[in-house]
Batch of 2 targets.
Target 1
Amino acid sequence: MSEKVSPLRQPTAPASAAALVHEVAGLIVAALNLDLAPADIDADAPLYGEGLGLDSIDILEIALVVSKQYGVQLRADSEENERIFGSLRRLADYITAHRTK
Amino acid sequence: MPILATQFLADLTRVAQLLGAGAHVLNACADRYHFTVGLAASLVSGKLSLLPSTHTPEVIRQLTAFAPDVICLTDEVDCDIDLPRVPFPGAAAAGSASPAPVPAIDTAQLAACVFTSGSTGTPVPHRKSWGRLIACVREEANRLGLSGSTCAIVATVPPQHMYGFESSVLLALGCGHALCAERPFYPADIAAVLCAVPRPRILVSTPIHLRALLESGTALPPADLIVSSTAPLTPQLAAEVEQRFNTRLLEIYGSTETGQISARRPTHTPEWRLWPGVTLSVRDGETWAQGGHIEQPTRLCDVLEMTGEETFLLHGRVADLVNIAGKRSSLAYLNQQLNCIPGVLDGAFFHFDDSRASHAGVARVAACVVAPQLDAARVVQELRRRIDPAFLPRPLLLVARLPRTSTGKLPQEALRSLAAAHLQSGGIA
């Protein structure tokens, strides 16, 4: 939780981008109890609306998981936000750039 | 930057001139200030604001049938609502606002029309007069303890939803409070917006947002009151909200048809106390609400137990009702939409309260569908055009036939068993 998050702390050694994509897919499937395997999520398909078909309740849930796991607090007013949920890969890229744990 | 009443009056005059000759406005503005200007502009021009709960193509088609002259007031650049659109105008030059009088609105004037899903597939309109809407939120202000102070209202719910409409837009307009234009979504946004407005300040929210806020680890700014509605909070979450914000949490209970009718402080009592003048009566096992600001006697879609003249306990929803994050529908309506899809031979939604269908305390619905020529993705794609995404089935299972009884009835329990067996086998049931 918050007390473990420090901007001074070095991020853990960066795993490969593909590994993070897989890890985030696993978090999404677990958090939302989706009826599919993490590898079944197309890394480049939209998460919202068409594609994986998530709605805003799911997006809030993913934001919560991402904040707990990586210390990334998503903000609607950040410029990239439009694109963050454009696909699993973009979400993973965003986490890589902003993670604090 | 604060917006003063003079600016508001100038803006509503400007927008009123753009609304054209028709009598109906779909106010789709996402910004709460824009929405409020649009509502006021509609009021002064004698137009009825239509507030459907969702804007799917099917709902817009039904809205056009209901009110052929409807136009859409929008502040979204990429708005894809298929109606004649009136874009919300850009800000007027600073200081250009000339003093305009505060308009007086007849209490009998119809101000808004909200919709519930009927069992036949046609939405049922509920028209609200200005006087009754305001009477309702003035009682809300009493119950929330806001009388005599001016508060800033931050809300995470849309202004088009009855709860958000009443507890942000009307509470501000009818009781002299200030409202915040933003609709913060992520926990960090909610905290930041709350922090940016002066105290006393109120957070109007839902169990889903409040839970996310507490669990996210975001630092919580002090608030002077937290209001929650759409679904009852668990006692644990209610206690934690009060503790972490160091303030009172009040819950509101109402419905689209009746508006708000009762409130409680869940850390003090499980009992809801009705607004004065509103009474409940039980007829043939159904609970009806009437009196006070309620336009006409209305059947409630929840199971209630009266504990006194003005108090009751809430025991859950009527079996047919679906309530997901404050969005309401009925199994009958969802089934009707599902069975309209070309290629669907038979299909039924059901409450599937196992872990696959629910997370974050949000119980979703599932569906079994007989559609030999279609795949599940195609059926979901068709449903997306017709119903709000919150009601899309999780999961949607393609089956060979539905477990109908010899009289054609379809017990929910039989559907749940079929789905459980189907998921276990991983194949066609």
Target 2
Amino acid sequence: MKKSYNIEVDCANCANLMEDAANKTDGIKKATVNFMTQKMIVEFEDGVDEKTVMKQVLKNCKKVEDDCEIEF
Amino acid sequence: MNKKQKKMLIRIIISASLMIVLFILYKILGPDEEKAKSGIIHEPFWFIAYMVPYVIIGYDIIKKAFKGIIKGRPFDENFLMAVATIGAIAIALIKKSGDYTEAIAVMLFYQIGELFQSYAVGKSRKNISALMDIRPDYANVEIDGKLEKVSPDEVSVSDIITVFPGEKIPIDGIIEEGDSTLNTSALTGESLPKDVKAGDEVISGCINLTGVLKIKTTKEFGESTVSKILELVESSSSNKSKSEAFISKFAKIYTPAVVISALCLAILPPLFLLITKQSPSWGDWIYRALTFLVISCPCALVISIPLSFFAGIGGASKEGILIKGSNYLESLSKTKYVVFDKTGTLTKGVFNVNCIHHNTMDEEKLLEYAAHCESASSHPISISLKNAYGKEIDSNRVTEIKEISGHGITAKVDELKIAAGNEKLMESLGLEYKPCHKNGTIVHMAVNDEYAGHIVISDEVKPDSKEAISNLKKAGVKKTVMLTGDLEKVGKEVGDSLGVDEVYGNLLPADKVSKVEELINKKGRNEVLAFVGDGINDAPVLARADIGIAMGALGSDAAIEAADVVLMDDNPVKIGKAIKISRKCLRIVYENIAFALIIKFACLILGAFGIANMWVAIFADVGVMVIAVLNAIRALNTKNL
């Protein structure tokens, strides 16, 4: 299951940090953040609820970068 | 500028003017350096006054720095800026120099740099996205006799949509009514408009130029060309290049390393001086350490590398070259071997029946059997046979169709056993055949197990193929190879006329894979082999090569899927162009890496010896970043390549 979300992040290094944070979240197989297109492409583990996982991802991302936003 | 940026601009202006006013007031009314007691207004007034512009410009940085420490992630740029400026203020307080402007100026310049960066990046993001913006916003559908704009997602297959001049075709389909000219440049980079009329297939993403078109959709929006391309472009960055991976790893080590060296710089030399009974001059060393911290932000590198790749991919897509990721852009730049498929790549792939020899029956009749026998195949040869026959094909007359890959087709037409294929097919059927002296593809025919003659079909070389090969040579490609399922003799003739170095003929699709593997094994470690095909029948080879380039892939999902680089039109000259674009982009990437690292390390060393002050440090941080960003944008320009 692969999905792409619009995100808001200001600096390129923060985008890298977000990517790390998202990848460490349970239920995520692989996440890539594209700073240039302001998109996060997420591959979920099988059988997880996307909404709950994404909530956790946002929470983890907020920890590393206060200003970030994910639309889901 | 967006809201955030405007707010920052206002903060910068207020803080800067306050600072300048205070600076002038201090010169007139403040104490001068020799006679600390003179002057009209004394401390702590100046300290408090100077804190106003400092807080205005830096409050968010300090807030973020604190949050970072609390969350156990102290080594970010906010922390560095906070420590550097607070440190500078502390030194000014201790030395009683009243020189608070430096701390404010450092913060000010840092914020100006950040603002500029966010503006420049936002701007270039918009420019690049605009190039790739082929997404249609709506489709006109007739509902209850009235045209209404609906989201393309809501249109189902076989609906009729209306496209007015100036609008994008939102969904793939067939024209029901009307004729017009289409601008396909957003998809193919081809500037010549294309004429279309009722019955023609059109693909989404083209812009309708002249007439109103009624189009019957053949696909859903999600399956349409435009969606496929957008998906490809948007996910392109998930394939990160080695340089990007290197930089993000580097950034993770670099910042902590510089912070630790700064700490050492602040403590070790004064301690050493203390031990050797000299004046430790703590202030100087701490100042040097703070300078270090300002230089340590890795942002110039971290931003400019992906931006360069993004601009390169954007520039390429403007030319109708879709590159699926920066890793492919990186390998493309190292291309030393280019292997071509012949049919449809270097030749037009449009075959014409040239002549019919040794026929035992009427030419018309033989052609009729051949066309029916091949009726189910979409191979270019089959299509040309059907075209040459020119009449409607009655599929009820054909049964038991068997396609033997690399050999041909056998089927029953009107209860007659028909075999159409190359000499291998004739041999496997145990039939004697007559070879042909003509160049071209020979389709041998057998009717009821008896040889019935052969049909000569020949292909035409694309007008740009020769130029394409010589361009590749000029671009530093070591060897060009052509693979073909055709006879070696036919291939050689085409290859020689184009200047291809090596030609291998008589290859089945599986042979092409093993041939490519053989070539891959022979090449050097840092050399890349690219395979160029038209995506029909060569998906396995496209996947096996280091870089698979599919040509004329517009509308062919399989090719878009299998290839790493997709050329939207079928002009082979674009291959050389793609390589040149990738080289330019990689050159910019290396320039940026080298430039940023050299300046940063030079400033670090100068800072350690106390030669570079905070101002130089700010340049090393913000200035380098701005220059790197501007350099990265150059990758977007592909005009003179």
